[in-house]
Specification:
By secondary structure, the protein is an alpha/beta fold. The chain contains 7 helices and 8 strands. A 6-stranded mixed sheet has the order 5-2-6-1-7-8. A two-stranded antiparallel ribbon has the order 3-4.
Length: 208
């Protein structure tokens, strides 16, 4: 049996300011740091031993992974006080293109609430100059199937620290959601989601 722990990064400064973040590197807010610490406590309390850490290339996800694993006191994952993690672009948040940095409320007032909701939650509609969720899926799926899945098959327990949309894409890959109902998936910041596998089948999945 193996366990995949999915963790959306803690609240970032741009989450707090209600701005589209995408590939922009921003810091965690004070609340986000506390969320990452709380995630570490929950993972530690689960008694699960994390063997390997994956993350996107973006700072907020990297920092969340490091803070949470430090809080969990998983010393075996650190070298010279730095978390050993495998970073890959495939796990990045979706690129919001021309919307990056804009306030979501002001953007809705400018383009209309319905249009912005389509950009944010549809499967295959791209925001101006950016990626759709379908585009994110096209990079998440091969990375999961060629890299992460192999680890899980070797009974490796994994923490994967990423973003709302890269995790939504992964939910589709794992058939937890479909592309038709993925818009209903709400992924809270800093709350670990546990998926238990055996023989490539999901036995259980839950937030802790």
């Amino acid at each position: 049996m193996s366990i995949l722990v999915l963790l959306r990064h803690g609240e970032s400064e741009w989450n707090l300011e209600n701005r589209f973040t995408g590939w922009k590197n921003v810091n965690l807010s004070e609340k986000g740091i506390l969320e990452a610490k709380e995630a570490g406590k929950r993972i530690k309390d689960s008694k699960i031993n994390i063997d390997k850490v994956y993350s996107s290339e973006l700072k907020r996800a990297n920092d969340t992974a490091e803070i949470s694993m430090k809080e969990a006191q998983y010393h075996h994952l650190f070298k010279d006080n730095k978390l050993l993690m495998i970073k890959n672009f495939a796990l990045n948040e979706r690129d919001y293109g021309n919307l990056t940095g804009l306030n979501k409320k002001e953007t809705a007032e400018k383009f209309g609430k319905e249009q912005v909701q389509i950009w944010r939650r549809s499967f295959d509609v791209n925001p101006p100059g950016g990626e759709s969720l379908k585009d994110v899926l096209l990079r998440v799926k091969p990375y999961y199937e060629e890299v992460i899945k192999n680890d899980l098959e070797q009974n490796t327990n994994i923490l994967l620290s990423a973003h709302g949309n890269s995790l939504r894409a992964l939910f589709i890959v794992l058939n937890i959601y479909s592309k038709e109902n993925i818009s209903k998936a709400e992924i809270p910041t800093g709350k670990p989601y546990f998926i238990e596998f055996e023989n490539n089948n999901i036995l259980n999945n839950y937030y802790l």
